[in-house]
Specification:
208 residues
């Protein structure tokens, strides 16, 4: 059972995260200082660094939390599902729970705006893509374990994860650059893009 001390620490972390995202989205990542984030919550800079290694960690924290929930969902998929179907169902079925995690800390709209900041800030985008590559490697191992394969000898887990991640990257870009894309619209877009993988990769794009 969570103690009072643990709840207080979680509230402080959540408050710092909210303040960071509000400042990043209102005045820009580069222009925001750790001191400003700490001041917005009424704590010291030292307290900020107890929870986050730096601004970049705070900026990407919700993305990391969402990804962690998704990976858990992949591990929990029924073993009879084909790898790509397991990935598809995991992302769609965990959509609501991921949004609940986000909404327990910040409004989803703020989370969506933060994606735009990540895409438009080179240092954040580089960190995000680097972390994405690490996540893909781990996800390929999860898929290999599900299928009883050696991920270092069989390329299929890495290939299916690469295809899936490519689709999700396209969705991310649409999310960050589009206007009027809410949570429901982005979920529907994700499903449509994932369902279109086969025709996109194997179909003839030329008109008859």
């Amino acid at each position: 059972m969570e103690t009072l001390r643990e709840r207080k620490k979680q509230r402080t972390r959540d408050a710092l995260l909210r303040a960071a995202l509000e400042l990043f989205t209102s005045q820009g990542y580069e222009r925001t200082t750790v001191d400003e984030i700490a001041e917005a919550v009424g704590v010291s800079q030292r307290t900020f660094f107890r929870y986050f290694a730096g601004k970049d960690e705070a900026a990407l924290a919700l993305v990391e939390m969402s990804v962690a929930r998704f990976v858990e969902a992949v591990r929990a998929r029924p073993p009879h599902e084909a790898p790509l179907e397991a990935l598809r169902q995991a992302v769609l079925d965990s959509w609501d729970s991921i949004n609940e995690i986000v909404e327990s800390i910040v409004p989803v709209e703020l989370h969506l705006r933060m994606y735009r900041v990540i895409e438009s800030t080179p240092v954040l985008l580089a960190a995000h893509l680097r972390r994405s590559a690490e996540i893909e490697e781990g996800l390929a191992r999860v898929i290999a374990d599900r299928e009883g394969l050696d991920v270092d000898a069989d390329p299929r887990p890495q290939l299916v994860v690469a295809v899936f991640s490519g689709v999700m990257r396209v969705v991310e870009r649409r999310w960050s650059t589009g206007e009027g894309f809410g949570v429901a619209e982005m979920r529907a877009l994700t499903a449509r893009y994932l369902d279109g993988i086969g025709p996109a990769l194997l179909g003839d794009w030329r008109e008859a």
